[in-house]
């Protein structure tokens, strides 16, 4: 009987040609990177260029999401997701950097809606200053995560680049000579490569300052790296210079409030069942994306005791444990301010690989 099997080498060649053809048809080319080079996946996370047949990741995503690095003869070199870390692996770069950060002072007991912050309570938080040539306007917050980089919401940077970031103050209009503000210029802004507005997704961006932060009273906040959100009974803190009323006027004083997370299913149910006027000035959102979480300050009856609003974007959803602070989320959007509807925050842990690749690139 004739042997109808194809020799192993031939089978491999056929598979390579099929996969290679698919990669050409559907993938984006990543600047001719070669096997072993670092690359960026379609979702913005860090990867490594590998031979297509060696990349199990390709089996889990549609071909249109493949990123082709280059090719070697008839073998396609694609961007492959790096293996997940285990508890036995070396800590991530952001976790290692966190251990080197200065500790914070003991935090006061947290807080209720609209409470003014103390001068040194948020030494990592800055306000973005936009200069149109005639006046300086402050919009959005940003969080110091290294000596040169701050993390904020991408939608704060889509119209223009801020002229500088103001740090070290509670009153952003202060002209105090005893506690003067620290204004640091902006070298460049880096929006997440997959940021989009409709529907709002990947609402995160980096700001590179034009000098190293050397002031000892300014401190860096750690990045929250756990894939799961803090439990719904864990107290978190929100802060910003945003609107406190429906007239959308910015607050000159830095305000803080406490908040807790919602279960995703509960939050989605609240958003979907909202039958109120959709002409809200905040972006409409009907369901959380994987890169989002929701939180709100509320009492036992569900009434709002703390929320973010217009102007607070980019500011922190912060977890405090002892003398360490972790940036869990960035104020992003929501349906209504000061109601029972939770605020929507960008989940920082979803973007750790992208942040590390920009702020602490491997040498």
Automatic annotation (TrEMBL):
<keyword id="KW-1015">Disulfide bond</keyword>
<comment type="similarity">
    <text>Belongs to the peptidase S1 family. CLIP subfamily.</text>
</comment>
<keyword id="KW-0325">Glycoprotein</keyword>
<keyword id="KW-0391">Immunity</keyword>
<dbReference type="InterPro" id="IPR001254">
    <property type="entry name" value="Trypsin_dom"/>
</dbReference>
<dbReference type="GO" id="GO:0004252">
    <property type="term" value="F:serine-type endopeptidase activity"/>
</dbReference>
<keyword id="KW-0732">Signal</keyword>
<dbReference type="InterPro" id="IPR018114">
    <property type="entry name" value="TRYPSIN_HIS"/>
</dbReference>
<dbReference type="InterPro" id="IPR001314">
    <property type="entry name" value="Peptidase_S1A"/>
</dbReference>
<protein>
    <submittedName>
        <fullName>AAEL012713-PA</fullName>
    </submittedName>
</protein>
<keyword id="KW-0399">Innate immunity</keyword>
<dbReference type="GO" id="GO:0045087">
    <property type="term" value="P:innate immune response"/>
</dbReference>
<keyword id="KW-0964">Secreted</keyword>
<dbReference type="InterPro" id="IPR009003">
    <property type="entry name" value="Peptidase_S1_PA"/>
</dbReference>
<feature type="domain" description="Peptidase S1">
    <location>
        <begin position="111"/>
        <end position="360"/>
    </location>
</feature>
<dbReference type="Pfam" id="PF00089">
    <property type="entry name" value="Trypsin"/>
</dbReference>
<dbReference type="GO" id="GO:0005576">
    <property type="term" value="C:extracellular region"/>
</dbReference>
<dbReference type="GO" id="GO:0006508">
    <property type="term" value="P:proteolysis"/>
</dbReference>
<dbReference type="InterPro" id="IPR043504">
    <property type="entry name" value="Peptidase_S1_PA_chymotrypsin"/>
</dbReference>
